Amino acid sequence: MAGERLRSFGLATPPAPRAIGAEDGIALLRAGQAKPASLLAYGNGRSYGDSCQNEAGTVVDMRPLNRIRAFNAETGLLEADSGVLLSDIIAHAAPYGFFPAVVPGTQFVTLGGAIANDVHGKNHHRRGTFGCHVETFTLLRSDGKSHRCSATDNPRLFRATIGGMGLTGLILSASIRLMRVPSLDIVEKATPFRDLGEFFGLAEAADQANEYAVAWIDQLAGGRNSGRGLLFTGNHAEHGSHAASRAGGNLSIPVQPPFNVLNRPFLTAFNAVYRWKKGRSTAPRQVGYHSFFFPLDGVGDWNRLYGPRGLFQHQSVIPEAAARTVVPELLAAARRAGQGSFLTVLKRFGSVRSPALLSFPRPGYTLTLDFPNKGAATLALLRELDRITVEAGGAVNPYKDARMPADIFASSFPEWPRLEALRDPAFMSSFWARTAKKLDTRRGAVEAAE
């Protein structure tokens, strides 16, 4: 369990300085010997920032807890340990005609991580977040007790743990409800749009007509081509494969390049080829689920392409009423800064409410940008994107973050004190320490002065 491999996916933050296995972490908690702020669950390291790290403490590697305990092929109810990967859940349920109701952009996340981050997918307008499909889970806290949590049993802990970034204790196992699908294959359609105005004109109708919808933006295009891209819609094919693969593709990045491979000339050429290849035909076509949901999973360790300094991801959600002016402003800010985003995704969130106390998705449009870490210049751009977002009444995603200031977090999630009140005292993350705990300290100082 080398600390070097227990990193966040963005590679821009230090690796975990100390790590223990799941069994050791469980024994420590059950014995009541966990020190304050000393622990944090670590799933499969697919978080981009430091919400999966505890720089001042120890991370608990939950991947050894990887057993699927039960599956009801009639109802789609699946019970599994928290370290089970989403890829294993898909492989187990696919032959019976079931698929997770919500999947993020990678299948290599743990069940516990999907709950703790309340992940969302390309169908938020219909299914909401992952937490909407969680029935129960078992939570081990530093009081030494295992708490069964659901909407009716320990409901406050249930709501705080979903989207709670691992701060309420260790999720040992969970039951989730999968959705029945005719096949794993997807009937995909790509619709080119000339600018963001045309995209916004298409987006709501696309959501109403399709299970899945997401747009790719050519972030580098300026002038009259500014905001051009492709809108991808999809539905499960009536006749297709029920075979699932547990592994990714055969390609991988075996070593860390000494520099950022994804530079501006590369991105310009890549965007041109991608737009031509994906947009040359607007006829629906049937594709495998890997290529539709998890295209980057086919390249192992693709994050290494950003170079040794890693990457920062910025994901914002903008209220629907402001999106038509603010989303173009966000893209323009990145172009002015001379920063290129390898993956630029725009999606529409619906109004399905999550049971989570803190959940990033809310009605509006969410824009995701990936930037190579160029130090001060990149950090300055990210602060500008923060400013534009919160001034529009939007929010920045903490699960993808590695550097947001405490005030941006407070503006994005004014309910944060309610999670702090339910946080297990033995659990802490680097993210929470630099945001919420700073806010809590300031609040305490003000109250003392009064």
Automatic annotation (TrEMBL):
State the source organism's domain of life: Bacteria
Family the UniProt entry places it in: Belongs to the oxygen-dependent FAD-linked oxidoreductase family.
Q: Which Gene3D superfamilies match?
A: 3.30.465.10
**PROSITE patterns tied to this protein:** FAD_PCMH
* Name of the featured protein: FAD-binding oxidoreductase
Domain FAD-binding PCMH-type as annotated: residue spans: 1-181
Pfam families given in the database record: FAD_binding_4 (PF01565)
Q: Does the keyword Flavoprotein apply?
A: yes
| PANTHER family registered for this protein in UniProt | CYTOKININ DEHYDROGENASE 6 (PTHR13878:SF53), GULONOLACTONE OXIDASE (PTHR13878)
Arranged from A to Z, the UniProt key words for this protein are: FAD, Flavoprotein, Oxidoreductase
